[in-house]
Amino acid sequence: MGIQVKALVLGAAMAAVACTTIIALILSLANHQTLDQSSTKYGIVFDAGSTHTALFLYHWVGNKENNTGIVSQKQSCDVDGDGISSYVHNPLAAGESLKKCLDEAKAEIPEREWKTTPVYLGATAGMRLLSLQDQSLADSILEEVTKTIQSYPFDFRGARILSGMEEGAFGWITINYLMESFIKHSFEGHWIHPKAGKILGALDLGGSSTQISFTPKDPVKNKDSAFNIQLYGHKYELYTHSYLCFGKDQALRKLQVYLHKTSGSSPVISHPCYHVGFDLNLTLNDLYNSPCVVKPNSFNSTATVQFLGTGNSSLCLSLMENIVNLTDCAFSPDCGFNGAYQPPVNGEFFAFSAFFYTFDFLGLVPKAPLTQVLSTIETHCNKNWTSLKAGNPKTTPKYLKDYCASAHYIMTILLKGYKFNNTWDQISFKKQVADTDVGWTLGYMLNLTNMIPSERSRAVTGVPHSQWAAQIVFIVFSLILILFIAILFVCDLNH
Ligand SMILES: Nc1ncnc2c1ncn2[C@@H]1O[C@H](COP(=O)(O)OP(=O)(O)O)[C@@H](O)[C@H]1O
Ligand SMILES: [Ca+2]
Known about the structure:
Blueprint: H1 3-38, E1 40-48, E2 53-61, E3 72-78, H2 91-96, H3 99-108, E4 118-123, H4 125-133, H5 135-150, E5 155-161, H6 164-178, E6 184-185, E7 191-192, E8 201-205, E9 209-214, E10 226-231, E11 234-244, H7 248-262, E12 268-271, E13 279-283, H8 284-288, E14 304-309, H9 313-319, E15 349-353, H10 354-361, H11 370-381, H12 385-391, H13 397-400, H14 403-417, E16 427-429, E17 432-433, E18 436-437, H15 440-448, H16 463-494
């Protein structure tokens, strides 16, 4: 063959391989994109907390839901007004209140996905308390929110009250899912179990209850506090406990009641956790209107009481031991507070919700040494109300007035209740992981939609991943082929 003919053949072969490679690349990109768009799935969870309701919209690529770290938060929406348990005189309005957020979610989700989008509503401690006081009232509120959600074109899967253990366990699932502590995609392309020590514990402080959940070193001795779950073929025994009436707001209410009762029911009462210059007027009906406090035998519900801030940080801290029982416990030394069984805390923890909000305001997130935490709280509590307000014009007084008390309450339960006194540096205060809010809602949805398989075998990589791998192999093969033909050609020329 003449040299020109050989050059022509080589040129044609190389052009053909190059064209095929480019077409394969374009096809693979186009395929990847259409797959992403057409198969995005959505899920909605309402967190009906004691103080407020929020909607979380999650999304994931449809055929990848068996993988970990795939579901993430697309949007969240705050429902106007207080928690649904406050609608005791107007249950209908509890339903109405959800419409704004449902409309927002509807606008965000493509119409073709509406009817396959699951929607859940989970209510926590506020509704737990209401159902203890008046079951039928709690039921009628749940009926109204159900009616509203059912009037939307989504796949409604129920509105119910979570148990405290579920609330704790689903928060634990959320953070470990987002941190990929259950299963990780290794560099070599395998799904592996990270070291057991990487499992995180969860600390959730709500308004009406607080939860602690973690995997203890030894088996849980009191099986009432054990939550057994199998994820990706791995069995976990979780210790979880929910303290009803020990959320931040109910705890601070108990403190007001304690001060009222120990002041001989005086109408003006010094409050060491409130700032100097701050005062709060309450009717006795407001003060005692909670199932978490013991009402006096008789009281004038319209009479008022005034709490006057004295900004005494150390007294505020010591008062906390009157509302948190740190002494009585039948399981000694395996105790939390209020007589609850708790094994020793183990591993790293994420603290979220009001733990985070309080520490974030104080500039102590994601973590700070214990000495710095203590001195920051002290400095904060000593500030007078006028200068505190002036220095924080954007913070609502509703929250601003309570950061001193909340911080001391938090330190009491963390150090003396849960006994993090020697392991303070294991706690990180977090609001989000991977752009997704930390709370029980994601874990709840993953569980109810079976998106975390219990078996190991189902944790396989999705089709797009293997498709990409095949395409890369093809491209590399083509390049090697071009190189090979070029070498042959050069050798031939030299002869
Ligand atoms: N910006 C904020 N600053 C301080 N506390 C906050 C802030 N936002 C929310 N919170 C508190 O977070 C808690 C949320 O509790 P919630 O979820 O409503 O109740 P529960 O989980 O007990 O049903 C409440 O105590 C609320 O006051
Ligand atoms: Ca909550």
